[in-house]
Amino acid sequence: MESGPKAGDAVRLLGLPSWLLHDLPEDEQAELLACVGKVMQVQEIDSYGYSW
Description:
Strand order of the largest sheet: 1-2
Largest sheet: 2 strands, antiparallel
Helix content: 10-25%
Number of helices: 2
Radius of gyration: 12 Å
Distance between the termini: 23 Å
């Protein structure tokens, strides 16, 4: 059985959900969207199971 990413793992950000972006100012949306396609390190997994 495969588990999800863990803190410290390198992952490629494939996209961002609209619910995360829709209330943010345009400059913050652009900053987050610029990360799509890049490899990033997972810093933590929150209590809901989301990677940050």
